[in-house]
Write a structure and sequence with these properties.
By secondary structure, the protein is an alpha/beta fold. It has 15 helices and 13 strands.
Length: about 450
């Protein structure tokens, strides 16, 4: 029996259920979401962030996730320019939440493995096993000057990332679960036979180890990955537990989903060991017409400079030199946001878009899929994608906070629950439990 047939057979015995992550940008995924009446205006209000996390937990979301960048550009998306540092924020949120996973981006190009392994191990202990690390190579080189270095090319970034992830996972495995004895009677604090150095010596890193923190409640925090290029998919297939995908259309999403799942057996993994969550920005109204009006209002707030800067950033070159009402020019895929550019240019050519059409698409959700409609329309579409295996769930990217997210939790989630597609309550204590992932054994013990 093939691996895929095995998964299909298991669906009969245990009904497959959708997973939901929240991608939080404090002012929303829409570049002008902060201008919507009642919207959160600045991503430094921790009380507002706490309320968003409570809403996500009330909605029984698997994951509360925060992306990151490493530079401030006043012309970029507001939440990427003014923001809280992700790990500090998540550690604070861990105290006020009980169930939801807590994930953050930390770059493999501008960080070091020992620090990353230690920080996420600490978050896993603080949260009781709810930590997740989004391992990204950092597409844009705009922050390189903040680290006194040059931005590596795409292939080199992924070579470094592959070794980086291996080192981090190795460091998480340097302690056995029972290494900390703390026996007051004998005076033994650590069983030294149950911990060991990593002694890694590779192309990019030399790391002795071990960490100065014991084994994580989850064994290893969940590893997220968002690369859509060939290099990115290969890294995800070998190392990731959850993959954030960039897609625009159902057939494209199904093909990308199947391509990733097909790679897993080569690494000794089954298709259900990796959860695929396409990013989606839902714009919800009482009716489809009202939802379209809400999206039109959001689009009316977009300025040409905002949208063109985002488009130039995503496509890796200055787009102001082209006619907005002309056809999409022939462009090579950039060395930066490879998957975003590939997906957007493919959609533009399929649908004979002008550059203005593409600019509006990017302004709406930074190149992610926009789903606009009534709660039933949104639920129907998500169900179709899920059941046709274009996704294992979705990384929800509200256009603005808090109301844009409240609409999804209060109006769409109950429909999905009523159809038996999404949990009504949490059934486990850790993020691995939420995703149905096993707790990995240490490679050393």
């Amino acid at each position: 029996m093939s691996a895929l047939a095995g998964v299909l057979q298991s669906d009969v015995a245990v009904k497959r259920q959708m997973h939901l992550g929240l991608f939080i940008l404090g002012t929303g995924s829409h570049v002008a979401g902060w201008r919507h009446p009642g919207a959160m205006k600045i991503f430094q209000d921790f009380a507002a962030v706490q309320q968003i996390a409570r809403t996500a937990e009330r909605g029984r979301f698997d994951l509360f996730f925060m992306g990151d960048n490493l530079y401030a550009d006043p012309g970029a998306h507001p939440s990427y320019t003014v923001r809280l540092e992700p790990l500090t924020m998540l550690a604070a949120l861990a105290v006020g939440t009980k169930h939801i996973g807590l994930g953050a981006t930390v770059s493999t190009t501008y960080s070091d493995p020992w620090t990353v392994a230690r920080a996420f191990a600490s978050l896993d202990h603080i949260s009781g096993g709810r930590a997740a690390w989004n391992a990204v190579t950092t597409a844009s080189g705009a922050g390189a000057a903040n680290f006194g270095t040059q931005h590596p090319d795409h292939a080199r970034r992924y070579e470094r990332a592959a070794e980086f992830v291996d080192v981090v996972k190795g460091l998480w495995d340097c302690w056995a679960d029972d290494a900390i004895v703390a026996d007051a009677e004998s005076g033994t604090y650590i069983d030294t036979a149950r911990m060991r150095p990593l002694d890694h010596a590779g192309t990019f890193f030399h790391v002795k180890g071990p960490l100065n923190i014991g084994r994580c409640p989850q064994g290893q925090p969940v590893v997220l990955q968002a690369g859509g290029s060939d290099h990115g998919q290969a890294l995800a297939a070998r190392t990731a537990d959850v993959v954030f995908s960039v897609v625009q259309d159902l057939d494209e999403a199904k093909a990308q989903y199947a391509a990733l799942k097909k790679q897993l057996p080569a690494f000794g993994r089954s298709p259900d060991e990796v959860t695929v969550l396409p990013g989606v920005m839902p714009v919800i109204g009482r009716t489809d017409k009202q939802a379209r009006e809400k999206l039109a209002l959001l689009q009316s707030y977009v300025t040409a400079s905002n949208a063109l800067q985002l488009l130039s950033d995503r496509l890796g070159q200055d787009m102001t030199r082209f006619d907005l009402d002309g056809p999409i020019p022939e462009l090579a895929l950039p060395d930066t946001y490879h998957s975003f550019a590939r997906v957007m240019l493919a959609k533009a050519r399929r649908e004979n878009m002008t550059l203005r059409d593409l600019y509006n698409l990017v302004a709406a959700a930074r190149g992610h899929w926009v789903l606009c409609g009534s709660p039933e329309t949104v639920a129907d579409t998500l169900q179709q994608w899920f059941e046709e295996r274009a996704a294992d769930g979705f990384n929800v990217m509200p256009p603005y906070f808090p109301a844009g997210f409240d609409d999804f939790v209060d109006l769409v989630v109950p429909i999905l629950q009523g159809r038996g597609l999404f949990r009504r309550d949490y059934e486990g204590a850790t993020l691995r439990d939420h995703f149905g992932l096993r707790r990995p054994a240490s490679r050393f013990f």
